[in-house]
Amino acid sequence: MYKWIAEHHQVLSIVASFGSLLIWLVYAQLLYLGFRRQRSPRLIINRGRNKDINALCLISNMSAESVFVEYIIAKLETSEGEITMDVTDFEREYSEGDEQSPLDVRENTRQGPIECGGFLHIGTFCELIQRLARYENIEVVDGQPQGELEFTRLTLSLIGIYGPENMPVGAERSFDISVSGSRLGLKPASWDTKQLASIRQRRKLRRTVEELNATDFSSSSSLRRVAAIQK
User: Fold this and answer.
1) 130 belongs to a structural domain
2) How far apart are CA 225 and CA 132, in angstroms?
3) What's the average model confidence in pLDDT over 115-124?
4) For the chain, how many structural domains are there in total?
5) Chain centroid to CA 103
6) pLDDT at res. 196
7) Is the domain of 78 the same as that of 136?
């Protein structure tokens, strides 16, 4: 045995060196994947409390760091076209004297950071649908449009800043709307939220943010049509 090892020690040394290199490569790959997973943002858009349009629209941050939500864009697809709106700010009715009293920022806008493992809700899907419908003067009863118009899909897109990153990140998810008896059903169009985190997608998001920032609209007035996010 010792004689055989002595005769083949050079070959064994090469094999051992190759094996050590392979182990280090695997270890380095695992470290890289762990680092990449930790640095990758992950936002989840989902239903809560119910399964129909009366469900809460939940936005959860499953990233390793906080995400600052900058814009929330809702797009309602109908049988006669689309309605797209910035729903980042709450829809409020002001009464006399409101302008003289300071208002809590959190009572007016959903813009702000979501901590790691945290979440926020932006109202029910029914409220979002009714809000978009009002913008186009569409008569809605219990979430259903009156007349021949049909609602087919609601898509929510998020634009935010992840931790110390310079370029924006995003997430998007669509929900199919269907008539179920006298109510509207709501079903996710995909099993997961689409993450917009590649270099190309983030460059497009940056251009979208620049366009939104250049648009003449007030943060207190959310009933403004804005450009849809290009996929």
Assistant:
1) yes
2) 10
3) 90
4) 2
5) 27
6) 92
7) yes
pLDDT band at 1 (very low <50, low <70, confident <90, very high): low
In this predicted structure, what is the pLDDT of residue 128? 92
Classify burial at 156, counting beta carbons within 10 Å of its beta carbon; exposed 0-12, middle 13-18, buried 19 or more: buried
58 in the same domain as 21:
no
Q: How far apart are CA 34 and CA 27, in angstroms?
A: 11
Which pLDDT value is given to residue 107?
Answer: 59
Give the pLDDT band of residue 157 (cuts 50, 70, 90): very high
Model confidence at 38, pLDDT cuts 50, 70, 90, reads: low
Rounded Cα distance, 87 and 133, in Å: 13
Instruction: Say what the pTM is.
Output: 0.74
Q: 98 and 13 in one domain?
A: no
Are 25 and 63 in a shared domain? no
* pLDDT tens per residue, range 173-184: 999 998 876 678
In three-state form (DSSP H/G/I as H, E/B as E, the rest C), the secondary structure along the chain is CHHHHHHCHHHHHHHHHHHHHHHHHHHHHHHHHHHHHHHCCCEEEEEECCCECCCEEEEEECCCCCEEEEEEEEEEEECCEEEEEECCECCCCCCCCHHHCCCCHHHCECCEEECCCCEEEEEEHHHHHHHHHHHCCCCEECCEECCCCCEEEEEEEEEEEECCCCCCEEEEEEEEEEEECCEEEEEECCCCCEEECCHHHHHHHHHHHHHHHHCCCCCCCCCCECCCCCC
